[in-house]
């Protein structure tokens, strides 16, 4: 929308408002405390602006709030303890700000909290052991903060639904506790059966990787975490040997893979079989182990997951040209027809994988079924990994051959509004693997301008 200026306290008089959406503008100033008067508010969407100042305590008394999304601003100060009253809130997205101080342990009382994203802030103090009491938490992402000298609470082993815990230290179906100056041993996380992504990189963790003993060993984590697909403990002080049981005895199905990242530690040997099963990758460069020339295959450079611009497919190479803004659908089933797509900028904020390519088909199925579209109506024009890691992509949604004019097929106005509202109101069903998303833009071609 290109809005600037500040948020008026008069917004607090909109007593029946359900969605307050000022995403992706240039709004500055502070968040008015008067917004806390809008007791009907369900979605507070202020991400991607230039907001400063503290979080108003009054926001903690919004009884119907489902989502507070204030990420990518310059908000500072502590998290108000009053936020522990947000009994209906499922999503706290506050990453990439300057939020500081101790995480209030009182937030452990939130019965519906699913996603707690506070990475890239100035948080300090300790990790609240009470968070193990959150009954529905799936993603806890706290990487790039200042939990100096703290340890991972042993109680976190009881977070049975957790998919992604990031301290980067980061544990979960995506990264979360990286670069937090955590110390000590890694607790026994073997009772978190859905854990898919464990990232403890850039900390001060020490000790060995034992081949025996059930508690406090990485071996036990792999023995009892059948969904774990990424283990990253880069840049710590782990010593001793790497047991091959980490990657042996694993059954990987379909598009599943296992990536083990142990670079830049003090590891000296691999015990057991050094032959990797299919779809398993192990990185050990920067360890004394790499002085052994027989293990050179483990010590190469790791490249980032591919960023892809899709480009035309064979389906459209021999089709006649379409008049702009119409184009051929690259995913049409071998047919040449012109259509006017909807253009969507979309970003996965905390995905549970580091390589999108094996999950592409699953994502296409997930999004088209959630939008009640056919599979051949979605085309992923490009995708790119960003810092976080977050996955940005540009999508094209094509109409099917129901409505057409002289130039090609189009969506009718009601369908445009339906699809747009699903993206903007987060009514697309959630996904454990793909995690929360954000809408970057929903661009309408001129032919659709009247649809809104």
UniProtKB/TrEMBL annotation:
Q: Where is this gene product found?
A: Membrane
The principal localisation class reads membrane
Kindly indicate whether the keyword Membrane belongs to this entry: yes
Q: Which InterPro entries does the entry link to?
A: Leu-rich_rpt (IPR001611)
User: Which one Pfam family would you cite for this protein?
Assistant: LRR_1
Query: GO terms for CC?
Result: membrane
Recorded superkingdom: Eukaryota
Q: List UniProt keywords, sorted A-Z.
A: Glycoprotein, Leucine-rich repeat, Membrane, Repeat, Signal
Protein name listed in UniProt: Uncharacterized protein
């Amino acid at each position: 929308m290109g809005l600037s200026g500040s948020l008026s306290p008069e917004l607090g008089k909109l007593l029946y408002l359900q969605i307050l959406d000022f995403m992706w503008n240039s709004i500055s100033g502070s968040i008015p405390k008067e917004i806390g008067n809008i007791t009907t508010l369900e979605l507070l969407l202020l991400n991607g602006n230039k907001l400063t100042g503290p979080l108003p305590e009054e926001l903690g008394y919004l009884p119907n709030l489902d989502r507070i999304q204030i990420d990518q601003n310059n908000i500072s100060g502590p998290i108000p303890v009053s936020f522990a009253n947000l009994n209906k809130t499922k999503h706290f997205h506050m990453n990439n700000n300057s939020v500081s101080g101790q995480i209030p342990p009182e937030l452990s009382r939130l019965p519906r909290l699913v996603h707690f994203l506070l990475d890239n802030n100035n948080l300090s103090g300790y990790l609240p052991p009470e968070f193990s009491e959150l009954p529905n938490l799936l993603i806890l992402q706290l990487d790039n903060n200042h939990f100096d000298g703290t340890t991972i609470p042993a109680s976190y082993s009881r977070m049975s639904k957790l998919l992604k815990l990031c301290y980067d230290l980061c544990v979960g179906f995506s990264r979360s506790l990286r670069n937090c100056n955590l110390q000590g041993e890694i607790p026994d996380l073997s009772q978190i059966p859905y854990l898919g992504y464990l990232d403890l990189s850039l900390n001060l963790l020490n000790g060995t990787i034992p081949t025996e003993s059930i508690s406090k060993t990485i071996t036990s984590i792999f023995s009892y975490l059948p969904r774990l697909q990424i283990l990253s403990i880069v840049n710590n002080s782990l010593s001793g040997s790497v047991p091959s049981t980490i990657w042996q005895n694993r059954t990987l199905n379909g598009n599943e893979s296992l990536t083990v990242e142990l670079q830049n530690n003090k590891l000296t040997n691999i015990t057991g079989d050094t032959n990797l099963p299919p779809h398993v990758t192990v990185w050990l460069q920067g360890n004394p182990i790499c002085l052994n020339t027989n293990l050179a295959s483990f010590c190469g450079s790791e490249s980032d997951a591919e960023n892809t611009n899709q480009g035309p497919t064979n389906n459209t190479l021999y089709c006649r040209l379409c008049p702009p803004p119409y184009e051929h659908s690259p995913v049409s089933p071998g047919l040449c027809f012109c259509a006017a797509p909807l253009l969507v900028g979309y970003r996965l904020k905390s995905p549970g994988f580091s390589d999108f390519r094996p999950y592409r088909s699953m994502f296409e199925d997930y999004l088209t079924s959630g939008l009640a579209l056919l599979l051949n109506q979605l085309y992923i024009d490009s995708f790119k990994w960003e810092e976080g890691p977050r996955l940005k992509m540009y999508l094209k949604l094509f109409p099917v051959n129901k409505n057409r004019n002289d130039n090609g097929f189009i969506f009718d106005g009601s369908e445009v509004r339906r699809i747009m509202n699903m993206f903007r109101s987060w009514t697309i069903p959630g996904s454990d693997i793909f995690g929360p998303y954000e809408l970057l833009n929903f661009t309408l071609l001129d032919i659709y301008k009247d649809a809104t």
